[in-house]
Design brief:
156 residues, alpha/beta, Conserved hypothetical protein from pyrococcus furiosus pfu- 392566-001, ParB domain, two-stranded antiparallel sheet, disordered N terminus
Length: 156
Amino acid sequence: MNENASDGSKAETTPELRLYEVSQLHVDPENPRLPDNVDGHDEAAVMACMLADATILELIYSIAVLGYFSGEPLLIAPDASDRLIVVEGNRRLAALRLLQDPSSAPSRKRAVEDAAKLAKAVPTRVPCVRFENRNDILDYLGYRHITGIIEVRSFR
């Protein structure tokens, strides 16, 4: 959230809310919810891990039946390769990806396919708040959990 101003001082910036293609977004390899035996850089392994937990199926069905709730955007930051990493919202990203392509489910394929059949529409673009780096997101989350939501600028 802070970035250097041209005079070298810290300038406060407001995170910006924008729509991003789901296909542009990547799961967080440093997701603290991942067990140690799952390589966070292997997105198929991450999907398999998430599907092993039945709660992801509940989320998939919820999005399929009720639609995607855009009121809580994904929080993203570029990595060293400029890939957009979802630091907050990995389960939602996984659910959207699986609804878009149920055949990609590494397990529980039948349940994912059944959920996808119920979906009236699956968004290909979702609201995200982009930060310049992961640490800014962690600062934001810490602040938010203590004091409330920080205002973000509207869609462009």
